[in-house]
Design goal:
- The chain is mostly helical.
- The chain contains 22 helices and three strands.
- The protein has a three-stranded mixed β-sheet with strand order 1-3-2, with helices on one face.
- The longest helix has 37 residues.
- The protein is globular, with a radius of gyration of 25 Å.
Length: 581
């Protein structure tokens, strides 16, 4: 009898916690239903077959609906007190609150007015999807064709949003618009039959009858033909309306309400309260520290001259460059497999999803970064993609390739993102969280350091390549805040890269264009990486010989992406738990 009474009392004591946890779960369910209905691209990747035929609604009316829905979610989250919440429910509530607040801020600034940048925009979304859309059935093919048929309306809606940017003086600078114009002119000059958007229909499965295959390809071709006039309208709009209204200065601070806008971008991308001035000084300090390490590696390579001479030698020596596109891809693949071989010694948990090494599509390669990661989909059976830019081989130094591979593939983006996708018992918004840039990009940069500890860099030149890449990210802190906060010219921002890194001239120009048109994002890498290094050093000091790097990396990764302060608390708790083992 006493046991029954005790059990009843425990149930009563636990009831508030269960009730509060249930309240959080209900808000999460409602948010995810709204989010996945609103974002058919993510929903399709997560297995919603109906979503595969749709594109997002970008109209002001849709934004108004988003605002109302998110404000309702925000109010419900704020009404749930800490008392009675389990730690996991509290974490879910706080992370969702952060994401919702970020989305509402983006709506408040009406960022839809600027849907283009030198790094991409609405005009290349379908191109990305064409790279990662599997066609295994008639329904798959019909869905892809329906997406193509929806494109003209989406383009027109985006053009109207951009026109609103012109009217409100919320525009990109001229240099960014010229990059987009060049890409668009190449797009419309491509014969329809060779348009990359038709690639998913090129090799349809044999289960689709030949007559139906022909009909689907005809529909796809007609959809691309229908898109061409809208693409030409976009070019005309950019030439006649947008270029004359392009902002005269480079910095985001010069936009209407630009100071508040840039401060928000800094916080949103770094997930910290660091000011632009603090980040600028962090960048300068990191430049000085890394420069000293570079000097040591140059001496190890037997170089007795200065940095400028060393870099000039690296740029001219043919042994540091691939001779064919295939050669570059093969070298990247070999490095990737060599890292795969070392992963179990550094990570307790590895993802099931594989990844491939692929070339950046030729239609975007000229203005594209040197490498990138394309997220895969376990639900759709699509591997992750480590994308290597094979354009301008004399600008793709092989001594940088190991660091690039570590960042974009493993142990960088593929390992972290695929592990998050495969988390069990976590809400979808945490598995797919796109909001915490410092976590994701900081991990990529931290992974370049880990690759060195793994022994992946086999020569002083490859170690110099890693340091040059780290310097690149330190210079980002200086250049981004210089351009957007301190009013620097492009020449002044360029100086940090030309004086301190071995990046090729082409890469430097592509990267500078990216920083100009995508303010704040470049800050996330170094800020996040410094936090990972700090947390690991703190853990090693606290745990001494009991520190296990495999357990540390699992502690970092197996909750999914987090803001930096939440990650700090998580590792503090992990250290305490490890001390009690």
């Amino acid at each position: 009898m006493r046991r029954l009474v005790l059990a009843f009392v425990l149930v009563l004591l636990a009831a508030p916690a269960f009730a509060q946890d249930s309240a959080v779960a209900r808000v999460i369910a409602d948010y995810e239903a709204f989010w996945l209905a609103d974002d058919p691209i993510t929903a399709g990747r997560l297995g919603d077959r109906a979503a595969l035929s749709k594109l997002p609604d970008v109209t002001p009316a849709a934004d108004a609906r988003r605002k109302a829905a998110l404000e309702g979610i925000q109010a419900r989250l704020r009404a749930i007190p800490d008392a009675g919440l389990t730690p996991e429910a509290k974490l879910n509530r706080d992370l969702l609150a952060w994401i919702v607040d970020s989305q509402l801020q983006a709506l408040a600034f009406d960022v839809a007015r600027m849907p283009l940048s030198s790094d991409g925009g609405f005009y290349d979304t379908l191109g990305y999807l064409a790279q990662t859309t599997p066609i295994r059935s008639t329904d798959d093919a019909r869905a892809w064709v329906a997406r193509l048929e929806a494109a003209p309306k989406g383009w027109r809606d985006n053009i109207e949003n951009t026109r609103r940017g012109v009217k409100t003086r919320f525009t990109q600078p001229r240099s960014s618009v010229e990059v987009v114009l060049k890409q668009m002119r190449q797009t419309v000059a491509t014969p329809v039959d060779r348009d990359p958007l038709l690639q998913p229909l090129a090799a349809l499965p044999d289960t689709i009858p030949a007559a139906e295959q022909a009909a689907l390809r005809a529909r796809g071709r007609a959809a691309v033909e229908a898109l061409r006039p809208v693409q030409r309208q976009f070019i005309t709009f950019l030439e006649r309306e947008y270029l004359p209204a392009a902002r005269p200065q480079l910095g985001a601070r010069t936009l209407p309400d630009g100071e508040r806008y840039y401060r928000w971008l800094v916080r949103d991308h770094t997930t910290t309260d660091l000011s632009p001035d603090q980040i600028h000084e962090l960048g300068r300090a990191e430049v000085a520290r890394i420069r000293a390490e570079m000097d040591g590696v140059m001496k190890e390579a037997g170089w007795t001259g200065d940095l400028a001479g060393f870099i000039a030698m690296l740029r001219k020596d043919p042994r540091f460059y691939a001779t064919t596109r295939e050669d570059l891809l093969e070298k990247a693949s070999e490095i990737a497999k060599r890292i795969d071989d070392r992963l179990p010694g550094w990570f307790g948990t590895l993802p099931r999803l594989t990844y491939g090494v692929r070339p950046v599509p030729k239609e975007i390669e000229q203005a594209y970064t040197t490498g990138r990661y394309f997220q895969g989909s376990p639900q759709q059976g699509v591997a992750g993609g480590y994308m290597v830019n094979t354009y301008a081989l004399d600008q793709r130094a092989l001594y940088e390739l190991p660091a690039l591979t570590a960042h974009e593939a493993v142990p960088g983006h593929h390992l972290q993102i695929a592990l998050a996708q495969e988390l069990e018992g976590k809400p979808a918004f945490r598995r797919e969280a796109p909001a915490f840039t410092a976590f994701v990009e900081g991990w990529g940069l931290y992974s370049e350091r880990v690759a060195g500890e793994m022994g992946i860099y086999r020569t002083p030149y490859e170690r110099f390549g890693q340091l040059s890449y780290e310097m690149w990210r330190a210079c980002r802190l200086v250049a981004d805040t210089g351009l957007h906060w301190k009013g620097w010219s492009l020449d002044k921002a360029r100086a940090c890269f030309t004086e301190n890194t071995a990046l090729s001239p082409l890469n430097i120009e592509v990267e500078l264009a990216r920083y100009v048109s995508w303010p704040g994002q470049a800050l996330a890498y170094k800020v996040g990486e410094r936090k990972y290094v700090e947390l690991r050093e703190r853990s090693m000091t606290a745990l001494g010989p009991r520190f296990d790097v495999r357990r540390f990396h699992d502690a970092v990764l197996l909750a999914g992406p987090l803001p930096m302060d939440v990650l700090d608390r998580r590792i503090t708790d992990w250290i305490a738990a490890e001390q009690g083992r």
